[in-house]
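In full, the data:

***
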Amino acid sequence: MYVHLGNNYIISFSDIIAILNIEPPISHDLKDVIDMARIERCLVSISEKGKEKSLVICNDKLYLSPISSNTLFKRAANR
């Protein structure tokens, strides 16, 4: 089954490791993870800058989504 992350991005449910809320305030540690993923080029930003609401951690990439973590959890549960 697949989960729609927003802006026409769809990923396999089986690839999802975690869905994290990143609406402000964001922890320093999580900010470091996002910065490191950006440096290693495994971060996919599918939302406008400043409008990110969740971080979806998958097997090989991290996705910054404009959709809230609660909504993504509901979509995954309804698979």
